[in-house]
Amino acid sequence: MEGIQHFIDTFLDLRLIGETLSSLLREGLLNTLFLAVLASLIGLTIGVFVAGGLMSSRRYLRYPCRWYVDVLRGLPHILSVYLIGQGLPLAGLNLFGNWTYGYAALAIGLMEGAYMAEIFRSGFQSVDPGIVEAARSLGLPHGRTMRLIVVPIGVRRVLPALTGQFILVIKSTALVYLLGLSVGQREMFAIAQDGAVNNASLAPLVAAGLCFLAITIPMTYVVNAWDRRMRDGRPAPVVAAAEAVV
Fold first, then answer.
1. Contact 187/32 with Cβ under 8 angstroms?
2. How far, CA to CA in Å, does 29 sit from each of 22, 99, 183, 186?
């Protein structure tokens, strides 16, 4: 019985879980979502441009983009957060002043940009070459063909994968505590970590885990349902119009 009680005190202290959930919902949830959205916007922007570089026929564009993707995907996330989030200020590159979120969002965004670049590349390259050839035969230049045909079709096809990547961004925000956050800036893991240290119990971390699961599990099911619907449903108007040209 003593062992069971010790297990409950360590992981399932309902009082601590309730107190931590209150702080998580009041402060941590909004900070986590804000950081995830900010990092995702950075990653999306980088991903689109790097994907274009990966498909370029020019080596001076393709090689740096390939190196960027290989390096950022090969490094552990925790190492990238340290090198970017702490390394830039130490090197005198105070891009965001004392705003920790800026460095954190940049670190996560640069990492996610590498993954999103491959997602975008696969989407763009999945467009039927016949559609592109038909657009070019109608006199559309390469740039307009990419902007009006390839990008809309390709992005639509990878939307479920991008949404799934956003789930990974949400989980990556837990690494931001490494950069140091003041009260009011803490995301969910930082709040739970402080509670665990102060109370010598892992119950606050269990509370944080429940919050992360409450966000990620429903989103996972939504992404899967969305993916099935897009694979089984009719093509979007832009796809149908482009295919009608062929």
1. yes
2. 10, 19, 14, 9
Count the domains in the chain. Answer: 1
Calpha distance 61→142 (Å, rounded): 17
> For 236, which DSSP code?
P
193 CB contacts (<8 Å, ≥6 apart)? Answer: 177, 204, 205
* Cα 8 to Cα 2: distance, rounded to the nearest angstrom: 10
What the block records as the tokens of 168 is 């990974």
* Cα–Cα nearest to 187, from 45, 23, 55: 23
User: How far, in whole angstroms, is CA 99 from its chain's centroid?
Assistant: 20
Q: Give the pLDDT of the chain (246 residues) as one tens digit per residue.
A: 666 777 777 788 888 888 889 888 888 899 899 999 999 999 999 999 999 899 888 888 899 999 999 999 998 888 888 888 888 888 888 888 778 888 888 999 999 999 999 999 988 888 887 877 787 777 777 777 777 778 888 888 888 888 888 999 998 888 888 787 766 778 899 889 888 888 888 989 999 999 999 998 998 888 888 777 767 754 444 344 434 433
Domain that holds residue 180: 2-245
Name the pTM for this structure: 0.82
Q: What's 105's domain CATH number? A: 1.10.3720.10
For the chain, the straight-line distance linking the first and the last C-alpha, in angstroms and rounded, comes to 73
* Residue 20 · residue 190 · CB < 8 Å: no
Q: Which of 162, 187, 158, 183 is nearest to 172 (CA)?
A: 187
